[in-house]
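For the sake of transparency, this paper describes our internal protein records without simplification. Because each token names a local backbone shape, the row as a whole describes the fold. One such record is reproduced below, unchanged from the form in which we store it.
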Amino acid sequence: MTNPEESNLQSRRCELEKKLFALDERLRRELLARGFDPAQYNNLALTAPLAKLYMERESLREELESLN
């Protein structure tokens, strides 16, 4: 049996993983739509909307890592 705190933590991890996956996909689609190679996003000067998605994704990754 798991305690409520552990259950909440696991639920939050799952929620963040789903959001991160969706954001990764959205960023990939947006990059492709603008003619960029998604594999090289770290080497690109991103436009403001893409940079916002990237920063949102990095924030989610950091939060997820902090839960581990």
Q: What stands out?
A: Helices lie at 4-33, 48-67. The radius of gyration is 15 Å. Residues 4-67 form one domain. The mean pLDDT is 88.
